[in-house]
Amino acid sequence: MVNSLKRTTLTLSLVLAASLALSACGRKGDLDPPSTPVSQQNQRGAEAPATPDSPFLLDPLL
């Protein structure tokens, strides 16, 4: 009985520590600025051939 209680406590402690460690990942602050200037975004150098729009499996749900 005591061994199972210790094992359960240890397991819960490890899960709690892992969840706290993973929730702290990331940076606090503003987002990074884009690498390309706004005037050059969404511009194509050459016209790309148009691809036919094929339906997606989950389209009816959207």
TrEMBL record:
Residues 1-23 form the signal peptide. It comes from the Bacteria. It is found in: Cell outer membrane. The keyword Signal applies. The lineage of its organism: Bacteria, Pseudomonadati, Pseudomonadota, Alphaproteobacteria, Hyphomicrobiales. Keywords: Cell outer membrane, Lipoprotein, Membrane, Palmitate, Signal. This is Lipoprotein. The keyword Cell division does not apply. Pfam families: LptM_cons. Residues 27-62 are annotated as: Disordered. InterPro entries: LptM_cons (IPR032831). It is a lipid-anchor. One of its GO terms (cellular component) is cell outer membrane.
